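Below is our example:
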Amino acid sequence: MTLTATAPTDLLTVEPIGPFHGARVLGVELARADDDTIAAVRAALTAHKVLFFPAQALDPDSQVRLGRRLGELTPSHPVVRGVDEEHPEIYALDAADNGFGDTWHTDVTFVRRPPLGSILRAVQLPPVGGDTSWADAEAAYASLSAPVRALADQLTAVHDGNREWGYHLAQRGGNRWDDGEYTRLTPVEHPVVRVHPETGRRSLFVNPGFTSHIAGVSEAESRGLLDAFYAHLTKPEHIVRHRWSPGDVAMWDNRSTLHYAARDYGDFRRIMHRVTLRGDEPVGPATIS
């Protein structure tokens, strides 16, 4: 059963790191946490959107167990198979195999039900570099001017995984996801503004990684709108940046954030392991009004 965001968070020591999102959670051993603590973590995830847990002792088995306590896990990725046969849920982002993430994106928005969130742990880090940044899509929506918010509320965007994953799919085959075995990537439509299913707050739900265009407008209009949304989403005041240390674990709410992994570490190897929480179909303002 998926936990909701109604549990109290006063069991946790939480240090906010940004005015809108991002927090460090101190004094929690995720591998040993009791049920009340896990429920508080789940509530803090929705409240702060991105959480960082230093000095954790997770391995592949305990990372999968943690994910299952926080929600229902998906397979590793619609296109990429798991890190090994024993851990089909773990997606390995390995710089030696083009696992970079150096484009602003929200995970797997090119499927009908994008993930609720992700849990990422550092496995091997370069001596310097490789930081990850997160943008708060809820704060970005709230700080748009009222006329632009009203326009965004009416729009629908197409999300297409072929640019990023089409070649990989053709060369290596796909993986299993909600709709069965992935053999092709069919573009999907999502509202440009997503209403969070737990909080009711609105976020800009477009990203440079997978959003191909705005539906129902000209190519020039689509390009202009998306460029404006992307520039606004990634303003410095909407971003927190994390410098990884060994043992770090990050969690984020995929429904209200974008992220970007800096590719600034040269030939050094960077390996991260991610598990993903199953989400639901995005709903826009027009659907609930």
Remarks:
- The chain is about 25% helix and 25% strand.
